[in-house]
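R.M. (postdoc): so does anyone remember the format we settled on? I'll just put the structure tokens first.
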């Protein structure tokens, strides 16, 4: 067999051709493989293809061959099944966490894990009504930095901003940097949040990662600021509706029985439900009463009634009254 300048790369090219162009429904015959290799400047003979396939098998590549109506060679088992790739593509496409550009890049990389034929099945759109994508692409790298800080036991500093009506960044604290000892990251309501000990306020707070700018990982100067052993990240996230700040308390709700699923989805399967007559049950949970909490409660209409504590009931009634008054002025 003649040996060209690229002959040493023959197995690598052959493996790539199989990964990119073949699957169970699209095998390649030996002559087709020989022609594909020739396109890269590599000559091959039929017998050498059989030997190469055996070498790839021994290396761990799932090389399959088939005879009959659709004969040829193809890659069998891949790191990800096509169904798994579809789920990942759907998650990336639907998530507001990624910018449009980063979504396209990631989906392109996921397509590279399938054959070109299978990749066509991944080139689809998951439409979510009025889906909003983040404008801050640095979030992608900030999350990685925060994970590194958590693993190394270090603190982070950053600037924190909001957008004004001109879509310009307006920094809080007049642009002064925040210094936070990370406790963990929380994914809530399609946003990433950093939960940690804020040195300036000397308390645990949370911050949206996509609103961080100029994030830096710094050495921990006070070992005593490490995450306390008793801190429960899941409990913290569960108590903060939409991660809004508010007053914390023991909240009692009286619910219609049809709302069991809603309550368990919100507060967890371990939530204690106490029967209250034939058609209702009550539940007492610890939660942070915030605008997000009241919005969630309002969305459930008469299916859930807030009964305690008194201060929360009165505050909720006041907000409902304000909303009614504003609606009356608009309609009038």
């Amino acid at each position: 067999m003649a040996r060209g300048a690229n002959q040493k790369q023959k197995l690598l090219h052959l493996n790539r051709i199989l990964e990119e162009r073949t699957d169970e429904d699209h095998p390649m015959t030996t002559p087709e493989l020989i022609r594909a290799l020739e396109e890269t400047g590599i000559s091959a003979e039929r017998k050498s293809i059989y030997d190469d396939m055996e070498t790839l098998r021994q290396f761990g590549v799932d090389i399959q061959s088939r005879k009959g109506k659709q004969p040829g060679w193809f890659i069998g088992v891949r790191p990800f099944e096509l169904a798994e790739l579809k789920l990942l593509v759907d998650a990336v496409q639907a998530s507001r966490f990624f910018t449009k550009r980063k979504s396209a890049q990631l989906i392109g990389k996921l397509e590279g894990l399938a054959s070109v034929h299978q990749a066509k099945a991944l080139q689809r759109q998951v439409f979510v009504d009025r889906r909003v994508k983040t404008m801050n692409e640095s979030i992608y790298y900030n999350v990685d930095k925060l994970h590194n800080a958590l693993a190394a036991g270090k603190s982070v500093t950053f600037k924190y901003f909001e957008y004004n009506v001109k879509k310009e960044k307006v920094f809080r604290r007049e642009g002064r940097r925040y210094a936070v000892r990370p406790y963990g990251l929380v994914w809530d309501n399609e946003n990433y949040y950093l939960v940690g000990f804020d040195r300036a306020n000397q308390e645990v707070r949370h911050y949206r990662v996509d609103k961080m700018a100029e994030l830096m990982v710094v050495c921990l100067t006070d070992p005593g600021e490490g995450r306390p052993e008793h801190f429960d990240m899941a409990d913290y996230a569960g108590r903060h509706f939409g991660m809004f700040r508010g007053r914390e308390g023991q909240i009692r709700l009286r619910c219609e029985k049809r709302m069991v699923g809603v309550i368990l989805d919100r507060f967890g399967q371990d939530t204690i439900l106490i029967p209250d007559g034939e058609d209702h049950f009550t539940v007492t949970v610890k939660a942070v009463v915030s605008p997000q909490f009241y919005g969630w409660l309002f969305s459930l209409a008469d299916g859930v009634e807030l009964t305690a504590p008194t201060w929360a009931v009165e505050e909720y009634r006041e907000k409902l009254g304000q909303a009614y008054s504003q609606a009356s002025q608009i309609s009038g």
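R.M.: ...and that's the designed sequence above, right after the tokens. Also worth knowing: The chain has a mean pLDDT of 85. Residues 97 and 134 are 6 Å apart (CA to CA).
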